[in-house]
Design a protein that fits this description.
This protein is α/β, with parallel strands linked by helices. The chain is built from 16 helices and 8 strands.
Amino acid sequence: MSSRKRVFDLLRTINIASCQCPAHGYRGNVQVSSTTPSKDYAFEIKCSTVRYGLGVTKEVGMDLVNLGAKNVCVMTDPNVVSLSPMKAVLDSLVSNGISYSVYDQVRVEPTDTSLKHAIDFAKRGDYDSYVAVGGGSVMDTCKAANLYACNPDADFLDYVNQPVGKGKTTMEPLKPVIAIPTTSGTGSETTGMSIFDYEEIKAKTGIAHSALRPLLALIDPLHTLSVPQTVANYAGFDIFCHALESFTAIPYTERGPAPSNPALRPVYQGSNPISDVWARFCLQCLNKYFERSVYNSEDIEARSSMHLAATMAGVGIGNAGVHLCHGLAYPIAGNVKDYVPKDYGTEPMIPHGLAVVLTAPSVFRFTAASDPDKHLEAAAILGADVTGKKQADAGRVLSDTILKYMDVMKVENGLNAIGYSAQDIPQLVKGALPQHRLLKIAPIPQSEDDLSKILEDSLTLY
């Protein structure tokens, strides 16, 4: 079968197939009994252990001693490997007598090809624990490497989310992962997600499994002081959308059906009272610290607060989920043409935070009808004056608030500015269709025409 025909057949399947997992989550091939309630009635919060503090990285060696680690894989990328966060990690490992190997070839915005390279490295090393030092790309790559090294006979697509992959669950216990984020955005240090570009369909997809969550996240704000302005900017907008999307996601009581077994409750469960606490916290931090953190790299208070906000957003999205901004961002990043962002190297790419925020004004105009009061509340926390605003104004008010932040941060003027035109919209919609776990967490069902309209409205923003 030709590659082109296989892609066509896959996209056709995506269009016509309904999700077969028990609650639009990662668990495939599980039958739900006819007595299962049509809506869920519970949510659960799972999270990595989080340790936060200036200089906390120096404790990683002793943490590994406490775990009884004998052979550690340290994963990072070609940029971070020569920076101070990596030096701090290796100094700690050496001083505590930890034997380790370094994999420093993680690709920023990983692909299935780059993941397989890291997986091969992990399989050869027979490691008993992992340390991920870097941004979301490093942490997501490390999670995948751990998963497949512990399941060496698995096919790569076995654990990839449906309908792109089989969405299987792992029965093997994974090795402990300690995550040390160096950017403030993804929150991957607390989530059971590993996201990558699946090159065959030119869109991102991922692996979702609670077992992927790092055992421990060391949140050391010292690592953020060397982050370039553009990286801090786009990473901050990832926090921004994490908070807004998890806050406005479908309520957990409206997602269904309920799982036939509590172990089958999905990673992304919908908004709930606990995830809302984290979302509000993040929005408050963004209002107070986002601009300061981007335009003054030496503002330790601002950068520390954004670093903590990224982790708290990860706790929120790691249980509630994200929806349309992220679902549309995956094909936006996967179909990149020739856009090369400052501070990200010389290869064409669309940073994740940029890809998610470009559709945000249109997305929240679309979702506002689901819960106008919550959309107005989000705008107010972000600094908007909502006095006298009616529920019918909610979408416009939140959209205008987002646009003000984007203007202050000098974000590119829509999809046109990063190389897309109206002719690309059908391909972008097709790339969004595989994102079942995201689209179904949106508070309002959407048609292909709805997705097209959101993208059309995002071509030019200002």
